[in-house]
Each structure stands twice: as C-alpha cells, then as structure tokens.
Design a protein that fits this description.
There is one protein chain. The protein is α/β, with parallel strands linked by helices. The chain has a single domain, classed as 2-Layer Sandwich (Nucleotidyltransferase, domain 5), CATH 3.30.420. A 5-stranded mixed β-sheet has the order 3-2-1-4-5. Helix 3 crosses helix 5. The radius of gyration is 16 Å and the shape is globular. About 35% of the residues are buried.
Amino acid sequence: MRHPPVILALDAATTTGLCKGAPGEIPRFKTKTFRGEEHLQICGSAIGWIARELTDAPPDMVYIERPMALGAAIHGKSNAKSIVRLNTLYGILGGAALLKGIPVVGVDVQMARQAFIGDGRIERDEAKRQCLNMCRMLGWPASNGDEGDAACIWYWGCCCEAPRVAAVIHPGLHAKVASLALAERLGVAS
C-alpha cells in the first residue's frame, strides 16, 4: 500500500457522494445517482458503478459511512424502506471493495462530523450544508451536500491513516462554518 494511501470515501445512498485522494492532496469529487424504480434496479446500478470505480483507478482503502441501524425507523429518525436501502448499498459498495482486496472502514458519521465541522449531533441537512461550506473554506471543489458529506468521511480517513499530512482544521473554522450555514438558511448575505 502506498503511503499516504489513496482513500475513497463514500456517503452511500441512492445519490452517493464520492471523495477520493491521498491525505495532503486536494481531493477529487463525484456524485452518482443509482437509477431505478425498484430496489433491485438500484442495486444493479450500484454494483455496475462500483465495479468500474474499483477497476479503473482502485484506491488503497475505502472509508464508507455506516448506515443507521434498522431500529432507527422505530424512533422516527428515518423510514424502514430508506434504512433497508442504505444498509443494502453499504453492503454492496463495501463488499465489492473487500472482494477486490481493498480494506474497508465503516465510519460513524457523527464522529467524523465532530472532527470536520465541530458538531456531530446536528440535523442531517444542516450538517451537509456545513460540510459543503468547510470544503469551500479549505479550497476543496465539492459541489453539493453529498460530496460535502463524503469529504467529511475522507477527512476522517486522512486523520486516521496519515495524521501528519492530513489537513489541520482550526476550531475557529468550525464557528465560521456554522455562521455561514446559518446565514444561508436565513437568506442573509455573508
């Protein structure tokens, strides 16, 4: 494995954000929407895409957001269909990497967000907005919230795999990101 390793970070969902690069570099971003009316069509789309992604330019490691537990639907955090789909996509994308001999790390997104934006417990849409703002402040070319979330996971992977070359995020940036997101939400120019 190269050092620092090339990390592929995935915010796995029907619309998946991807962030890829080696710690210390400016990462590259993509968004992939898995199309289909039925669950199996979406799964087939995911299998085809990840097979190409891991063959054309394989990473050294994959960091992927762990989905919510199935019990989250009971507590109103999501619905059962979404949780089943997210768990299935997590299994497909992570399993494909393992099949290719690529190590996979499941990431608790709350821990990653705590490191990246300074708050791991904020609501999902607000977190995505803040992750995208952090990318902009770091000069990373993420273009949407899914890519911002993938950047958060990638940053976590960089801190774990090569902390000496990972970007250093000062706590002052956390406050600035939160204020920018609030200004966006309120429609106030920043």
